[in-house]
Amino acid sequence: MRIPAHSVCTAIRDDIVAGVYERGSRLTEELLARRYGVSRVPVREALRTLEAEGFVVTRRHAGACVAEPTEQEASDLLEMRMLLEPLGASRAAQRRTEAHLKVLRGLVRLGQERARRGNSEDLRSLGGWFHETLAQASGSQALTATLTQLRHKIAWMYATEAPADPVESWAEHGAIVDAVARGDGERARAATALHAERASLAHRLRFSGAGERADRVRTSQHPVNVTGPRN
User: Fold this and answer.
1) 205 with 228: CB under 8 angstroms?
2) Residue 24 — φ and ψ, nearest 5°?
3) What is the CA radius of gyration of the chain?
4) Dihedral pair phi/psi, residue 70, rounded to 5°
5) Do 222 and 75 meet the contact criterion of CB atoms below 8 Å apart?
6) pLDDT band with cut points at 50, 70 and 90 for residue 1
7) pLDDT at 122
8) Global pTM exceeds 0.85
9) How far apart are CA 200 and CA 59, in angstroms?
């Protein structure tokens, strides 16, 4: 596989999230360079970036390795998202463009249509695009980048079940867009907070005994097992 040098970081991150590299496994520059068809220089730079993001750690005598987050760290990510997504929606209500609204409304229409048909795979992708667009509509590059990184790490650490009522879930998306379109920051914040809180209940840690709810493991500091289920 050959990819552009500037895309090496994204490719390695995507493979970590997908479970191609197990948690705790070594990431050697030589093997990574060979896999992605680049020199070791962009690989080295990518590993530095991924270490800053928390996907990679450097260990004595081992070098770069895939990080092994604790259950507490994983739980903290959901709490951070529940705080930051409402903030992003509130900002979006004040800063969104007509182009943002057009995309958001189109995604809601598609999501509601797919929800009625029960197509869960489409809904997962549409939900990701919706929240990415909503973050971009906040007009804050820093907030958008932080939320994007949170989504990557949550996808890495958690398996996500389909909402019990996808039609209701997409009605919540619609309520968020309505508030953003009206420029009502407080209503957008409240609608997004409610949606994020309900959505968090569908997340299950990818560790042994992954059927437990994430809110049951908030105080544990044990590393997450690498053998949990994958999406």
Assistant:
1) yes
2) 90, -10
3) 19
4) -85, 165
5) no
6) low
7) 82
8) no
9) 32
